[in-house]
Here is the input.
Amino acid sequence: MKLIFKTVGLAFLALAFTSCEKEKEENLDAFDDAVNTELEQRDFEEEDDLGNQECASIDYSTHFPEGVIVIDTMETYPKTIVIDYGDGVENSQGRIKSGQVLVELSQEMSSEGAVKTITFNEFKVGEASVEGYRIVTNLGSNEEEHVEFSIEGEISIEKNGIVRTKTFVRKRSWVEGYGTCEREDDVFLISGTSTVACGSRSILKVVTIPIKIAPAVCDFPIEGEVSIEKSNGKSGVLNFGSGDCDSEATLTLHDGEVKTVDLEKRRCRR
Here is the structure.
């Protein structure tokens, strides 16, 4: 009888341990979604940058890898620019893009009040289908005399039958490199909020320390912090560091546990 109880007890402990490990894994999977959607903006960085440089004459095709066709037939504004990746072109980050991105410009984006609207036509990044829109508006100079843009929209990404929808309202301050034609000196600070919904789950993300990016020289955020709150009440803090360009960040969970985040793979290390 003692042996039976002991065997049952061990089985119960094993089941409890397995259940606990599964819960932890599912918890990390949800945070992976939060990390992934935070970094997915980098997949549209080239398109988002279109029209920003203050130059007399711009060849937009120089912003994109060989094989991308940029169609810009209008010399005046408003205009629509078509970025055509065809059946697939690899970008500088090693991601394969296909389909089209449509960029509508009301006027030169260096002008206060200018609006840029980005939409998609059968667009994919790898195997993920992308739908939705982004609206970027030039708000003029802020209190620090940096040109500031509002960014709002909704992007849905479908992969393997799973759809994640990100709704966002953010601001992007151009703190270095404004007014030059070179992208290499551009530095931005990003603030604001976003919500990610996937089935019955939702995640609220709030930028608590502005995210610093230098898109032309670093593939990852180099500073900043994001507070993450899941619909089940569990939370975490994603920290991108303090200025170094590297592929690591840290995720501090609600219980104090700290996980290393692989920004290249866009997930927590197990």
Summary: The chain has two helices and 15 strands. The longest helix spans residues 2-39.
